Amino acid sequence: MASSLGETEPTVRLTVFEIHPVPEGPGRGFELNLDVVRENLVPWDKRFFEPTPERGAGGPRSHDRL
């Protein structure tokens, strides 16, 4: 694209795919600050990773695939 002075402007390229390094260990590449998460729960439901016995042994089967 030419400017009013006859010079060309640099071409802008969009990167569609970027290559990121694969993590060496388990995890998603970030850690949650659990204290901050607890502070920011919605006021009407302050549950935080409560046990779910209904999903344990003897309960209904899950469709999760591991």
Task: Provide structural commentary.
This protein is mostly loops and 66 residues long. The protein is built from one helix and no strands. It has one helix spanning 34-39. The longest helix has 6 residues, at 34-39. The chain is elongated. The termini are far apart. The mean pLDDT is 72.
Strand-helix topology:
Blueprint: H1 34-39
Give a short summary of the structure:
By secondary structure, this protein is largely without helices or strands.
Which descriptors apply to this entry?
66 residues; little secondary structure
**In terms of per-residue confidence, which ranges show pLDDT below 50 for 5 or more consecutive residues?**
none
Question: Counting H and I runs of at least 4 residues, what is the number of helices?
Answer: 1
Would you count the extended β strands for me? 0
**Helix fraction bin:** under 10%
Structural class: little secondary structure
Radius of gyration: 25 Å
Assembly context of the chains: single chain
